[in-house]
Amino acid sequence: MAKLRDLPTELLILVLEWLGKIDLQSLIVSQLTSKQFHAAVQDVLTDAQNRDLRQDPLSEEKPAVHPLWASKFGALFNSADCFTEADRRELRYLTLDGDFTLPFRRLPWARAGLGRAAYLRPEASWRSLSLTFGQAPITQLDLVKNYSYGGGGDSVEYYQVDVPSSGLTMGLFYDVLLCERANYGNETGAWELLLGKRLRSYDVLFEYECFITDDPDLVEAGEEARQAAILYVRGGSTDEVDPLKHDRGTWIPHIIGKEPPKLFPWQGPEPDIDRSLI
Questions:
Q1: Which entry of 24, 86, 102, 149 is 20 to 30 Å from 137 by CA?
Q2: What is the pTM of this model?
């Protein structure tokens, strides 16, 4: 009886390419079948990401997280999604204050030790795949941090993540969230990934002393920002926040990559400075 692995490599790759379009997870898992499948799947994934790089960045299609990542890592794109219905009834404010690793520990694969170990391998396939797999990759990631003080007033910080020319991978995004400079530790209240947006003005950000996601003077959207994204992190005092009952386990989320992500200061045009004021 003929078997799939008996197909010529060219035909096998065509079958696997179709599988990747309809069920990326099955394609990734199929690598375990044999060395032949592993090599063929790697070719398919590489070709797919190279195609993504060549896609027209001015396409009218809105950038989106791949559905597989949305199902496996959903709360990491918007921390508010980690709260259960019981949490929402109990809490006055949906905040992570005091427990910023909660979205990680509530991921669907994080509770079972064996499943978690498979995901946390440095060589796990998800880490090297594009966050927007199947679409043009995210090539610019702005990190905006906004801290609100209990007595009034805000402070802001800005960093630009060092994203490779091939685009933002799931592994890099995962590690950025856990990077010490990217959060406020247990004073982190929330975060959200805003696709198709980038910071328009560093000066306006610091003039406002806060971040407003839909302010056109502050945030650029549309064609020019299609391959950009903003990771918006909020933090603040925990004094008036109802604490959530912790469901801590033995697993403590950590950066998986060999080195922490690199974060740079503003990389845009230098602001005009009135030297007479210096």
A1: 102
A2: 0.86
Cα 24 to Cα 29, 31, 120, 147, 256, distances in angstroms: 9, 12, 19, 38, 22
Task: Profile the chain (278 residues) by mean pLDDT over runs of 10 residues.
Answer: 64 78 85 81 80 66 91 95 87 80 93 86 94 93 91 87 95 96 92 96 91 93 92 81 53 91 81 40
Phi, psi of 162, rounded to the nearest 5 degrees: -75, 95
Within a domain: 250: yes
What does the alpha-carbon distance between residue 234 and residue 220 come to, in Å, rounded to a whole number? 20
Q: How far is the C-alpha of 199 from the C-alpha of 217, rounded, in Å? A: 9
Report how many domains make up the chain. 2
Domain that holds residue 16: 8-54
pLDDT of residue 128: 94
Amino acid 130 reads S
186: which DSSP letter? Answer: G
Examine residue 2 and state whether it is found in any structural domain, yes or no.
Answer: no
Do residues 46 and 167 both lie within one domain? no
Question: Is residue 100 domain-shared with residue 36, that is, in the same domain?
Answer: no
